[in-house]
Amino acid sequence: MIGMLKGRVEALGADELVLEVNGVGYLVGAGARTLARLEPGQDIVLQIETYVREDAFKLFGFIDDIERAWFVHLQNIQGVGAKAAFAILDTVPVSEIANAAALGDKATFARAKGVGPKLATRIATELKDKAPPSGRSFLIGLPVHGATGEAMPASPVVRGGDSAARDDAVSALINLGYNESAARQAVATTLRDLGDEAALGDVIRLSLKELAP
Questions:
Q1: Are 164 and 156 in contact (CB under 8 A)?
Q2: How many domains, in total, are found in the chain?
Q3: Which sign, positive or negative, has the C-alpha torsion 98, 91, 149, 191?
Q4: Which domain holds residue 26?
Q5: Do residues 162 and 179 lie in contact, with contact meaning Cβ atoms separated by under 8 Å?
Q6: Are residues 203 and 179 in the same domain?
Q7: CB 3.0 to 4.6 Å from 190: which of 66, 136, 160, 206, for a disulfide?
């Protein structure tokens, strides 16, 4: 199975790209959000989800692994295939998806093209009490770097799409005696109000206010 490809973008299509890796051109399916960030001749690392079927072998590519993880996670819902998962990821940022899942917010999922009210309700209902995907862990034990190559801040910060940091906040609330579902909803509400980045301490403190009777 293929989990990652590093190469050069040779061509872009409406819903796919050709990535040249050591002389081999891989046809990789991708969402509009990913394709909009690419251009021919660009060197890129894509996180790959491989689908093997009796009649098909398909590669789907993502710049950020958390997007790949949500692509898989969403398809655990009956009625959500690759097309619908891409539609959701193209319409709603990952941070909003995580919040909408925790809050059971069907309206957010209904914004995606091709996702009707019934399916949006099913997605919101089934994801509400499930932990968000964490994605793969790369460079374990090494500093995490951003797209510019600079080391990310060492101070504890919760970012909207960072499920590990989000889980740290949820874990802190669970350790204080709150149940997981309520903790996830409180953290989601807090992150929605604070924006995409917030200090871990602030998230916990404001989530406790959210949980207060």
A1: no
A2: 3
A3: negative
A4: 4-62
A5: no
A6: yes
A7: 206
Domain identity same for 54 and 81: no
Best CA proximity match to 65, nearest among 24, 126, 5? 5
Burial of 68 (0-12, 13-18, 19+ CB in 10 A): buried
| pLDDT on residue 138 | 53
Cα 110 from chain centre: 17
Same domain, 18 and 47: yes
What is d(CA 80, CA 119) in angstroms, rounded to the nearest whole number? 8
- Residue 150 has which token pair? 């600079």
Q: Are 78 and 58 in the same domain?
A: no
Pair of tokens at residue 43: 């060197």
Query: At which residue do the structure tokens 């590669």 appear?
Result: 59
- Count of residues making up the chain: 213
Burial of 80 (0-12, 13-18, 19+ CB in 10 A): buried
Report whether 97 contacts 128 (CB < 8 A): no
* Averaged pLDDT, groups of 10, the chain, 213 residues long: 92 96 95 95 95 85 94 94 95 89 92 95 91 67 39 47 69 79 82 73 80 76
pTM of the model: 0.69
Q: What CATH number is attached to the domain comprising 168?
A: 1.10.8
Q: Is the backbone of residue 194 left (phi > 0), alpha (psi -120 to 50) or beta?
A: alpha
Q: Is residue 203 within a helix (H) or strand (E), and if so which, with residue range?
A: helix 200-211
